[in-house]
Amino acid sequence: MDKSFLNIFIFLFCFFQTSISYSEIELPDLGNPSDIYMSKMDEPAVGRAYYREMLKKDQVVEDALLQEYIQHLGEKLSSKVQEGDYKFNYFLVPQSTINAFALPGGFVGIHLGLILNADTESQLASVLAHEISHVTQRHISRQIGNSVPNSIQGGLVLLGAIL
């Protein structure tokens, strides 16, 4: 009886010692795979370039009252984001469809159709929160990273078909 108790005690002691030592190990930050194609620092410039292009093509609604409303609502939501690396810019798109989209670097476009068809501010806020998550989770950078291997494979298949 004493020997089995001693074996259990030794086992538990060794088990807890290793779990404590593993918890103290700090792993290095290896970065994010999406950084290969677009770094977090590049995202605002890319988003700004898309936004400016939309402005040139009159694809942004310039209504000060609506703009102030959507920016205020978006900032209430994005102020809760733990990663303060993004300065969010919300803008309206003159489309009647119920849609919204996120550009890299914190640029979020909201179609007028979404505002016109939302029954409550909460419905609009939920869509904005969804788009904010696309930005903070860097989904655009990941999509670019995921599409590059496919475009390389597609190019090789096309090249093989030509030859």
Defining key terms:
single chain, 163 residues, mainly alpha, Zincin-like, 6 helices, zinc
Q: Biggest sheet: strands, sense, closure?
A: 3 strands, mixed
Q: What is the fold named in CATH at topology level?
A: Zincin-like
Mean pLDDT: 80
Element pattern in H and E: HHHEEEHHH
Terminal-residue CA separation: 79 Å
Instruction: Please give the number of β-strands.
Output: 3
- Strand percentage: 5-15%
SS class: mainly alpha
In terms of per-residue confidence, which ranges show pLDDT below 50 for 5 or more consecutive residues? none
CA-based shape: elongated
Total number of helices: 6
Rg calc: 25 Å
Query: Judging by the overall fold, what is the CATH architecture?
Result: 2-Layer Sandwich
| Total of domains | 1
Helix content: 55-70%
Superfamily at the CATH H level? Metalloproteases ("zincins"), catalytic domain
Spatial order of the strands forming the largest sheet: 1-3-2
The top-level CATH class is: Alpha Beta
Could you give a short description of this structure?
The chain is mainly α. The protein has helices at 2-23, 43-56, 64-78, 112-117, 121-136, 139-162; strands spanning 89-93, 100-103, 107-111.
Q: What does the secondary structure layout of this molecule look like, with pairings?
A:
Layout (H helix, E strand, L loop, with lengths): L1 H22 L19 H14 L7 H15 L10 E5 L6 E4 L3 E5 H6 L3 H16 L2 H24 L1
Parallel strand pairs: 1-3
Antiparallel strand pairs: 2-3
